[in-house]
Amino acid sequence: MLYSAIAETFERIEATTKRLEMTDYLVELLRKTPPELMDKVIYLTQGKIYPDYMGVELGIAEKLLLKSLYKATGIPESEIEELYMRHGDVGIVAENVIARKKQMSLFSEELTVERVYSTFEEIARKEGKGAQDFKMKLLANLFHDSKPVEARYLARMAVARLRLGIADMTILDALAISFGEKSDRDKVERAYNICSDLGLVARTLAQKGIDGLKEIKIRVGIPIRAMLAERLRTLEEILEKMGGKAAFEYKYDGIRIQAHISEDVRLFSRHLENLTEQFPEITSALRRAFMGEDAIVEGECVPIDPSTGEMLPFQVVSHRRGRKYGVEEAMEEFPVLLFLFDALYLNGEDLTVRPYLERRKALKDSFTETERIRISTILITDSTEEAERFFNQAIDAGCEGIMAKSIAEDSVYRAGARGFTWIKYKKDYKSEMTDTVDLVPVGAFMGRGRRAGKYGALLMAAYNPDRDMFETVCKLGSGFTDEDLDKLPEIFKRYLTEERHPRVDSKMEPDVWFVPNFVLEVLGAEITLSPNHTCAYGQIKKDAGLAIRFPRFTGNWRDDRGPEDATTSQEMLHMYEMQRKVE
Ligand code: ATP
C-alpha cells in the first residue's frame, strides 16, 4: 500500500472540522487498506507507532528534523531554519522544501506504508551512541523519496505532533461503519476499552469481523481504560440518582493506579502510562498483600507524612512521577500509600461484568491490608445525614470528598466511560466555583509595567470533544510567581504559531498564539456568561459563552494530561448549571 493514500486522506481530514466528514474519509481509507496493514494504518493516523501504554515515543527534536531535510535536499540549513521561524510548523517547512527539491530531481522510489512504519519503528527504538545521527539519516531517506504532501505528515509525525484532530471516538465510528452495522458500535468500543489498543481492534475486525472481537479479552499486563465519575451537587440528588441507597467511599486525592499483578507487577496511570519503575515499594507491597494467582485492581496512590501517617496534599505525590533517576531517594522523601477501590480481574476471571459489591468483596477477600496497601473506607447508606457525616469525616482525614457508587445489579465496571454509576461529591461544590478546572493555554497577551516584555496573561481554553476544538474561557494572569513568569516565554517557545491554531476557537486576539499542548490547573470564583469567550457558545444564551471570573493558576502544571484531557466545555456547562441551581 502506498503511503500517499494515507497522506491524501490526512490532507482531506485536515481541511474539515466536521466529524462526519472526517469519518467518511477514514472509512474510505480503511476500505483501501489490506487487513494485515490495518493496525499500522490506524497507528499512523493517531500519529503513533504503538498503543500508548507501550510507552514508546517518537518525539524527534525539531532541530534534528530540520537537519534531515537539509540532508535530503541539499537546501542550506539556514534557509530551512528561516522557513521554520516563519511558519512554526515542521510539516509546512518539509512540504515546502520537498516541493522545491522535486523541481530539480527526476527520480525517486514511491513510499509504501510498510516502509514508513518500519522506519519510524527503527527511529523510536534506536538508543545510545550515534542514535541521533542514525535517526536523522533514516528520516532524510524518507524525505528523499516523499512527495511534498507526504513530507508534511512525515515531519509532523516525527516530532510527535501529527494532531489531525481525529478523536478515538471518530476512529471507532469509522471502524464500526467499515466492518459492521451501526448497531455494532458498542461492541467495537467495548473491545477498545478493555485492550486500549485501536490498532489491535482494527486488525481483528479486518481479519475476523465483528465476531472476532470476542477474542479480545482482558489480559493481565494490558491496561483497561478507566471508568470515570460524573458529578452532582447535593447528596440528595446523588442518592436519588442512585435509587435511594448507595455505597460511599472516601475520595482520596492522589494518582490513580491500575495494578496488574501476576508473577510480577505492573502499574499504569489513568492515562495508561507505565508507572511501574516509579513506585517500586508499591509493586513489592502489592505482591505481598495479594493472596491469589493474578489480578487487575485499581486504587489511589496518596502521599503521606511519614512522621504522622497523615495524608498530604496531592501535589506532593507528583514528585514521584516521571523520574528516571533518584527513585530510591524520592521513595524515602515522599512516601506513599495505595488505597485499593476496585477489582477488575481476579484469578482468570473478568470481574468488570459483575456488580460493584461483588467486585468489592473479591477485592477484600484477596488482599490483606498492610502498612502500604489499604482498602478504601466505605459506607453503605440510604440516609443523606449519614452520608454528610461520612463526607465530613473524609475531609477531616485529608480526602477531597467522597465517591458515591451504585450498588444496583447493573453496576458493572464501565471501562472508558464517564457515567452516573460513580458520582463524585467534593467539598468545594457547596460554595461558588472553588473546584479547579484543567485548561489549555492557546495564546498570550504581553504584559505591562512590571511585566513588560513578559507574558501578562495566558488565554485559556476548555476542550470540546464534539467539535474537537479548544474554546476559550478566560485570561489567566494571577497565581504565577515571578519565577514562573520569567520562564513562560521559554516554555512556550516551541509551541508558538503565527496564526490562531485551526483547533482553537476564539473571539479574542492575543499577542501570540500557541499550539494547544499544556494543561494548567485553574481555580476560579464563579462561572459567568460572556460575549468574549467561545466555551459552550450559544448554549445558555444566544450571544454568549462561558467564562471564569477571577481565575487563578494553582501552580499545578498538569503534565500528566494531554490537551484533550482538559476540562471539557460540556463539563463547564454542567458546572455552570449546578452553580445556578444553588443560586
Ligand atoms: P478529579 O480531578 O476530580 O480527580 P478526574 O477527571 O481526574 O477528576 P473523575 O472521574 O472525575 O476523575 O474522579 C474520579 C477519580 O477519583 C478517579 O480517577 C480516582 O483517581 C479518584 N478516586 C479517589 N478515590 C476514589 C475511590 N474511592 N473510587 C474511585 N475513584 C477514586
Which tags fit this structure?
19 helices, DNA ligase i, domain 1, 3 domains, globular, six-stranded mixed beta sheet, 583 residues, OB fold (Dihydrolipoamide Acetyltransferase, E2P), eight-stranded mixed beta sheet, binds adenosine-5'-triphosphate, D-amino Acid Aminotransferase, Chain A, domain 1, alpha+beta
CATH topology of the largest domain: D-amino Acid Aminotransferase, Chain A, domain 1
What is the CATH superfamily of the largest domain? DNA ligase/mRNA capping enzyme
Highest-level CATH class of the largest domain: Alpha Beta
Percentage of residues in strands: 15-25%
Helical segment tally? 19
* Rg for CA atoms: 25 Å
Secondary structure: helix percent: 25-40%
Query: Mind telling me which CATH architecture of the largest domain this is?
Result: 2-Layer Sandwich
Which molecules are bound in this entry?
adenosine-5'-triphosphate
Number of extended strands: 21
Q: Could you name the ranges where pLDDT drops below 50 across 5 or more consecutive residues?
A: none
Largest sheet: 8 strands, mixed
Shape: globular
